[in-house]
């Protein structure tokens, strides 16, 4: 069982932005790394976002960033505390900024519906959102306290940037707070490599290729890391463990703090009905109407039991060559980003019904037959609809920390309670999602040190440095400046603003 904690998230809007500015800048400057997350108003054509050609995919994301906006920005500053024996302890500060683009932008109905279902307050956004303009700087942006200057402070801090499935986040951040996007992907990655010299890390990539969890959507990865860390602490063995500390805020800062409870997992008694769709992808077309459990703690418990069963089968008959990894119906590499759920009524996997003691009812749906994905050691369903490929991490990972869901029951009162908790438990906070992203990263870094690799100030996770997850691809996108790429003129101008004129004059070539 995992331990409970309460995470303070500071809400920032237009009326307290200047008041909180010194605290935000100090948190950024003193952090060891910064985790970041966004809420967006839409993404446009989903199929274009999954184009086979990465250059075409980049163009589709650019088109979305130029016509849509960031509704909310969350960042979590993790400061590693020294002299904490043999464990890794971080002081964490979390901020959630409600934003309002001052230009016309597209907002998609499905985005609105999804965000409202998960507690996003559009009245608050339009009344109190921090204003900003997209594209290149205007004269008013170069001075004062505004979103573009806050992003400049982030760049000046030269801290590692951590995201989850971060390609879309980075494109939107560039367009909304930095400069007009370059037309070519190579130019964009070259600019990023200079903007974040301490490196960019993607926890979705780390979850699949370093931690190798059964699923990699944000809430699942966070709770799995939290569970594994708690088990290690309870076992009392040697090695490093992860601990967090939070600031104790006094008036007036305490007036802006939203305390988010992270409830401990629990072991239910009786029959356990897990929604197989939600278990595999982190989303369900039935949403809060689904009678089955969407509780991630229960899903992780089921996956742990499946892993034990596979180990027993492998020991019993090693000649079968069973591949350990994701349970049936788990499918990696198919998430994108954004807050729209596109219902898929053609493919409805049956519910997974399991007794607490481990007994499981047989599955009969032939669509759920799985094949072993090459190179990743996990199983992937063969039958995947086109709509399923367009599900996104922004869709599936905006549940925050949900309260444990009641077990499926014919009782109408309990069904209503389950529906209510599905709506309330996942109140949207980009700040809390940033916290979860940072937790995954810090746990992975602690685990790397635990297995004997010495810590390095140059790279927290060397195997994940500057590698960004690509949906539907078995290889990541590398954030590097190639010999053939050129820096964007708007980027060079912005670098002059960040570091002063002449600092980037040695950069060869512009476009």
Automatic annotation (TrEMBL):
Q: Which portions of the chain have biased composition (kind: Basic residues)?
A: 307-317
UniProt keyword Metal-binding, yes or no: yes
Listed GO MF terms: 3'-5'-RNA exonuclease activity; snRNA binding; zinc ion binding
Q: Where is this region: Disordered?
A: 304-425
Gene3D superfamilies listed in its UniProt record: 6.10.250.3220, Ribonuclease H-like superfamily/Ribonuclease H
| Location in or out of the cell | Nucleus speckle; Nucleus, Nucleolus
Q: Which InterPro entries match?
A: CAF1_poly(A)_ribonucleases, RNase_CAF1, RNaseH-like_sf, RNaseH_sf, Znf_CCCH, Znf_CCCH_sf
* GO CC annotations on file: Cajal body; nuclear speck; nucleolus
Q: Is-annotated flag, keyword Aminoacyl-tRNA synthetase?
A: no
**What does the UniProt keyword field contain?**
Acetylation, Metal-binding, Nucleus, Phosphoprotein, Zinc, Zinc-finger
Zinc finger spans (C3H1-type) are 274-297
One of its GO biological process terms is: snRNA 3'-end processing
For bias kind Basic and acidic residues, which ranges apply?
A: 325-348, 364-377, 388-400, 411-425
Every copy of the C3H1-type domain together lies at: 274-297
Q: Which family does it belong to?
A: Belongs to the CAF1 family.
Instruction: Report quaternary structure and partners.
Output: Interacts with U1, U2, U4, U5 and U6 snRNAs.
Entry-linked PANTHER family: POLY A -SPECIFIC RIBONUCLEASE/TARGET OF EGR1, MEMBER 1, TARGET OF EGR1 PROTEIN 1
> What function is annotated for this protein?
Inhibits cell growth rate and cell cycle. Induces CDKN1A expression as well as TGF-beta expression. Mediates the inhibitory growth effect of EGR1. Involved in the maturation of snRNAs and snRNA 3'-tail processing.
What name does the UniProt record give this protein? Target of EGR1 protein 1
The gene it comes from is: TOE1
């Amino acid at each position: 069982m995992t331990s409970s904690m309460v995470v303070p998230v500071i809400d920032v809007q237009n009326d307290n932005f200047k008041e909180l500015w010194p605290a935000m800048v100090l948190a950024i400057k003193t952090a060891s790394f910064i985790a970041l997350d966004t809420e967006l108003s839409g993404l446009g054509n989903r199929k274009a976002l999954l184009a086979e050609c990465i250059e075409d995919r980049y163009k589709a994301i650019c088109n979305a960033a130029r016509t849509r906006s960031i509704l909310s920005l969350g960042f979590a500053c993790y400061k590693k505390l020294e002299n904490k024996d043999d464990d890794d302890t971080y002081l964490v500060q979390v901020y959630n900024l409600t934003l309002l683009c001052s230009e016309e932008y597209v907002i998609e109905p499905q985005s609105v519906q999804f965000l409202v279902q998960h507690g996003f307050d559009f009245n608050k956004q339009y009344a109190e959102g921090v204003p900003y303009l997209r594209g290149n700087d205007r004269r008013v942006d170069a001075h004062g306290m505004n979103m573009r200057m806050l992003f400049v402070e982030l760049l000046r801090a030269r801290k590692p940037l951590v995201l989850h499935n971060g390609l879309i986040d980075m494109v939107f951040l560039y367009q909304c707070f930095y400069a007009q996007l370059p037309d070519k992907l190579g130019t964009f990655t070259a600019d990023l490599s200079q903007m974040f010299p301490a490196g960019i890390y993607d926890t979705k990539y780390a979850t699949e290729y370093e931690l190798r969890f059964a699923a990699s959507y944000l809430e699942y990865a966070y709770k799995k890391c939290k569970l594994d860390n708690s088990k290690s602490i309870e076992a009392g063995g040697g090695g490093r463990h992860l601990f967090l500390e939070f600031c104790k805020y006094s008036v007036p800062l305490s007036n802006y703090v939203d305390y988010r409870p992270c409830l401990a997992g629990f072991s239910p008694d009786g029959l356990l009905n897990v929604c197989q769709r939600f278990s595999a992808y982190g989303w369900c077309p039935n949403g809060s109407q689904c009678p089955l459990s969407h509780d991630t703690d229960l899903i992780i418990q089921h996956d742990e039991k499946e892993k034990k069963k596979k180990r027993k089968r492998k020991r019993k008959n090693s000649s079968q060559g069973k591949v350990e990894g994701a349970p049936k119906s788990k499918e990696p590499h198919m998430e994108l980003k954004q807050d729209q759920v596109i219902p898929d009524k053609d493919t409805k996997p049956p519910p997974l019904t399991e007794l607490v003691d481990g007994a499981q009812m047989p599955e009969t749906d032939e669509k759920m037959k799985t094949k072993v994905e090459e190179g990743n050691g996990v199983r992937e369903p063969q039958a995947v609809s086109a709509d399923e490929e367009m599900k996104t991490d922004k869709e599936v990972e905006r549940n925050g920390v949900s309260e444990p869901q009641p077990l499926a029951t014919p009782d109408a009162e309990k069904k209503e309670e389950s529906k209510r908790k599905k709506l309330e438990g996942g109140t949207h906070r980009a700040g809390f999602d940033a916290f979860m992203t940072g937790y995954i990263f810090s746990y992975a870094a602690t685990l790397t040190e635990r297995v004997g690799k010495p810590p390095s100030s140059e790279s927290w996770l060397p195997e994940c440095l500057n590698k960004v997850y690509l949906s539907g691809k078995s290889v990541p996108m590398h954030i590097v400046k190639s010999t053939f790429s050129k820096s964007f003129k708007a980027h060079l101008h912005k670098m002059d603003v960040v570091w002063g004129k002449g600092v980037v004059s040695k950069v060869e070539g512009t476009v």
